[in-house]
Structure formats: C-alpha cells, structure tokens
Structure prediction request, 254 residues.
Amino acid sequence: MELQGKTAIVTGSGSGIGRAIALRLSADGASIVVADVVDDLGKETVELVKKQGGRAIFSHCDVTSSDDAARTVKMSVEAFGGVDVLANNAGIEKAGTVVELSEDDWDKVLGVNLKGVYLMSKHAVPELAKRKGVIVNTASTAGFTSYRRCTAYCASKGGVVALTRAMALDHAPDGVRVNCVCPGAINTPLHKKYVAALDPSIRDDYVNRQVLDHPIGRIGEPEEIAEAVLFLASSKSSFMTGAALVVDGGFLAK
Prediction:
C-alpha cells in the first residue's frame, strides 16, 4: 500500500468526492483527518473509515478561516505525527450570472473554493515540507471551459488550476509536489443540489444534455475521482507537479 504510515488531511470530506477520497486513501494505508464544516457528516465519515479498519479523526474546519486551517494542521501533527498529503477538496456552487449573483454569494464561492485552498496550504506546507509531502487540489473542467450561469464557480476553479501551478513552482525546492484533479460532472450531493435548484422547465433537459455531453455516456462517480487523487498522492506520480489531471468522461475532448 502506497500510503501506509502516512497522514492525509481531506477537506470537505463529510460527503461526496471528499468522503470517497478519505475512504480510498484510508484503504491504501493513510491515517485520515476528516475536515468539514458539517460536524455530523464529518463524524460519519470518520466512523466509515474506522469501519473499514482505518484510523481517522474529525476536525471542524471552515476552510475560509485561518484559525480553523491552522488548528486542523496542528491536530494532524498531534494525532498522527505529521502531514504527508493535503487534499483540498472543499467546494460549493451558486448558480447565477454576474448580474443575478449576489456579492455575498460571490464571496462565499470564491472563499471556500479558492481562498480555502490558499489557507489550508499556507498552514500545511511547512509540515508537508518536513516529509516531502503532496498537495492535491480539486479543481474542475470549469477551470478550462465555462458554463452558463456558473460565473463564480468557473472563476474559482480557474483560480485553483492557476494556484496549483504557482504553488508547484514555489514549493518544488521544498520537495512538495502540488497537482490538481479536474472532474467532469460527478454524482455528488452538491451536483444533486445544483440540479434540484434549476427551473423545473429546464431540469430534465439539463440532466439529459449532461449525459450526452460526456462521450462515455454517463456522469462520473465520486470513487472514480478518488482513484485519481490516490494516484496523485502516491509515489506513482512522483514526476508530476503543477499538473491538472482531467477526469471527465471525455467532456473536454469534444
């Protein structure tokens, strides 16, 4: 197992892709720090990790808070001796054009999706450098293309791709690799919530079009993204840094 004896912090791991990442990294031997702002879901993930024989603790973590980010890293060191992997996965989405979107919603999306990556990395990099660790950020195909009424999300994910590259250059001398995974449409609670918020008159068409937009003929599952994160977190990707690994069922290939 590639991650035996290592420790991974996974943000937004109370559900969806984050939970799948936590479970997959645990199955490969890592001790997991489940970091989430929703306590019940985060603690549920901890129990799922333990149920499959792994080790995990929970940290209530609002990734837009520097104090929460610092405390989560400190907990990781105290509980497991250090940090080897930081999976910056926490993310939210708010639909709307720049006219429709409130300033508050813009700030929330950019805060969680982009500032959260900055804050968690800011506090984790000194510990990661001690162990030649890895950062894996969750970006999106929205980092390369755009979608209607998805302004804040597209801006934030484009920022994550660019930030990944910048951090890769800055911290390569420290022995810290930084990559990101770019999912297409994935069957997560976040995606389901977004679809449910659509106008009923266009919802079915949106769902059908999404399937057709992916040449594989379906949207993805969280576990498929978790496998890509495991690859980027492991020594099997040892010559990769600053990369954006697209996992999108062929969406961007069209």
Strands lie at 7-11, 31-36, 56-60, 85-88, 134-138, 177-183, 244-247. Residues 16 and 188 are 5 Å apart (CA to CA). The domain at 7-185+221-253 is CATH 3.40.50.720 (Rossmann fold). The chain has a mean pLDDT of 96.
